[in-house]
Structure formats: structure tokens, C-alpha cells
Design goal:
Layout lengths: L2 E8 L5 H13 L6 E8 L4 E3 L7 E2 L7 E3 L2 E3 L3 E4 L10 H8 L9 H7 L2 H8 L5 E3 L2 E5 L6 H7 L4 E5 L9 E3 L5 H9 L4 E6 L4 E10 L2 E4 L3 E5 L6 H5 L4 E4 L6 H17 L5 E8 L6 E7 L9 H8 L4 H12 L2
InterPro entries: ATP-grasp, ATP_grasp_subdomain_1, D-Ala_lig_Van_CS, D_ala_D_ala, Dala_Dala_lig_C, Dala_Dala_lig_N, PreATP-grasp_dom_sf
Pfam families: Dala_Dala_lig_C (PF07478), Dala_Dala_lig_N (PF01820)
Subcellular location: Cytoplasm
Amino acid sequence: MKKVIALITGGTTGERVISVKSAATISHNLDPDKFDVYKIMLTQQGWFYEPVDSVRIEVDRNDFSVLYNGRKITFDGVFIAIHGAPGEDGKLQGYFDMLNLPYTTCDALTSAVTMNKGYTKSIVQDIPNLFVAKSVQIFKNTPYHLADIKSSLTLPYFVKPNNGGSSIGMSKVKNQYDLQTAIDKAFKEDEQVLIEEFIEGREFTVGVVKLDGKITVLPATEVETAKEFFDFEAKYTPGVAVETTPAPIRPETKKRVEEIATAVYAKLNCRGVVRIDFILLGDEGDFYFIEINTIPGQTVTSFIPQQVAASGMKLNDFYTKLIKETIG
């Protein structure tokens, strides 16, 4: 018997565009012999099912159902493909928990905590062989002093919204006099801002997922860009960054990365597929944790589809296993 899956996309942030592209990849690769998929669009105006042969139909949020062709459609589970709020910050997860409806991502608590980069670092920093950049966290309506920040951190700095994604609102600050401008830019995206020391090294990202009851680390990707850092344009414009999957690293480094990534996934109590961004110093030296994405992009240019292919698995099979592990 086929499972009835709601693929929920859209969202209320600037990452909505990426979410729609991710959902297109996912729906194209969900096995039609195993799943009946209904794409649900979440916007500021409401939640809608948009069948190709009809006008859009509003979702009944009392039980997350859709009335279509005189039939009430309910779901066996939800594939959440919303990056940013309210899909990645725990709000949707809390709603589905109250309805006892399973979903493909981390639970509400893990989702909420990991959206906050500062809180996440404080949880993972005790993991063996994992390092975090020195940082200062500031809040919009709480006084802060630029002099204190400058005295406690060494230039250059990364200034980023603490709860953001896709590098929106992020700046690299090389000159101390540019710090305030960077903070103001980040505060346009979030109520909290993280200022951290810039870590010089090779940039990587790696997908981690539980499949068949076992935590699996996908082949890592090395990211090289001519831009100052891996920003929104570099992430989503083909050709701006060079992405090498699997990353050219030594076997012993690969093993260490897998051990650390597995430990992060376990310590944060993750579910589904996540992506961990990190930097290796020098000659494949210290592993510096950058951030974790609990709903990583699934567009055709995104890392997870690249890494799934590099692991020798078809995306169709990957999504089937992911749904089986998280929804049943």
C-alpha cells in the first residue's frame, strides 16, 4: 500500500526560493510506486495544495488535511522541505508533534536549538577533536560595546545572523571600522548576531543521515570560491564556487571527519538528513565546526544530492530509505 506523503515547501523567509527548488528535486525523485505525494505550499497568506487541474485548496490546519474532489485527504507523514522559518526552527515540528504526524526532520527541540549557531556551538564544543571559533553573541535590544568585542576577538571577523541560513545577512570584516555596518546588516535578518573570529583553512561540508537504523556519513565536499566567503551567490549560482565531491582528503582525515560528524549528529539528537559545515586548518589539521543545517538544500546544485551520488546511491533510493527511517 502506497504511503500518502505531504511535501511541504515555501516558508516565510528569503530562503523560500531555495525551498521551492528543493521540493522540485524531491518530488521528482520520490518513487511513484511507493508514495502518493501532495505538494503543500506554505506562505505568509496561508497553506495551500495546488493541484495542476484545479485552483489552490487551503489546508485544514485543525488536522492537516485537504478536501480535494469531494474526498478528505490525510497524510501518513510529512516531508519537510522548508529552509529557515517555520520549517527549520522547530515550529512546524511542534505542530506536527501535536497532531502525532511523523516527519522527515529533527524534532522540535533539536531544530530550534540548531537554528541558533551560538547555542549549537556551546553544545558540541566538548566533542573530541572538534574545535569552534572564538565568538561573541549580541542581542538586538541589549546594549553591546564595540570596544569590548574588538578587544576580545582578533580580526578578521565573520558577522552573521545567529538564526539565519543560506549566508543571508553575513559579512566578513577585515577593518575594525566596518564592524558596526556588518552588525547592522545582520540585525536586519535576526534579533541575535554572532561575531566570530575568521578561521583560515579549507572549507568542507558533509551530509549525515540515519538510514537502516545506522548513522551514515556521506562523502564530504570541498568548497573553493574566489569570493571572500561562501555567500548566497556562491551557494546557489552555478560556476561561482568549485565543489569537489568526494573531497580530496587523506583516508585518516576522512575517518576523523566521519567520527566527529557522527558524534555531532548523535549529541544534537538529530533525525533525517543534516549537513555539517567545517574547516580543516593547514595540512588537514584541526577540525573547526562552522554550523549545522537540519534541512539542507536538495536543489540540483545542492551538496546532499552530489554526496548521495558520490556514495553510489540513487536519490530515489535515498529518499525512500529516509522516509522509511523517519516516517515508517
